[in-house]
Amino acid sequence: MDKVDELIIAALKDDSRVSLAQLARQVHKSRTAVESRVQKLIEKGVILGFTINVAQDDEALQSAFLMLRLEGNSCHLVFPKLCHHQEVLHAYSLFGDVDMMLDVRYKNFEALMAFKDRLLKIEHVNEVVVNPVLKAWR
Q1: Distance between CA atoms of residues 69 and 97, nearest Å
Q2: pLDDT one-digit tens code per residue, 17-32
Q3: DSSP code, position 95
Q4: Residues spanned by the domain of 38
Q5: Distance between CA atoms of 25 and 40, rounded to whole angstroms?
Q6: 34 & 83 share domain
Q7: Tens of pLDDT along 77-113?
Q8: What H or E segment, with its residue span, contains residue 32?
Q9: What CATH number is associated with residue 13?
Q10: Partner of 22 at 20 to 30 A CA spacing, among 44, 59, 67, 93?
Q11: Is 137 within the bounds of a domain?
């Protein structure tokens, strides 16, 4: 990977929708040369994909981790009841004092507490500890 490849990657990170013609102008190469370089970066696994960021509602979503303590070995019974909740991004079954951990997104604290109350109504859920994320480092 050379300086031109680095410039191409930087430009694509900035705007993955940039046309090949515009990208070529930015890196001072022909459109064909840039297209070839992009294809090679994809084939080598340097570029894994092209994404878009979609705006959420007016309020930005916040993150929290919820720790669930369950009755016995019941993760397999509780998980199907969590799948349909839009707040749940990921659900993990754990070994130790906590049986499940949920990675959730919420609009505001009231919505998070309402979600906690709904979780406590699920059969086999004994306790829910809420850990709002203050800052995501990565």
Answers
A1: 8
A2: 889 999 999 999 999 9
A3: S
A4: 3-43
A5: 19
A6: no
A7: 999 999 889 999 999 999 999 999 999 999 899 999 9
A8: helix 31-43
A9: 1.10.10
A10: 44
A11: no
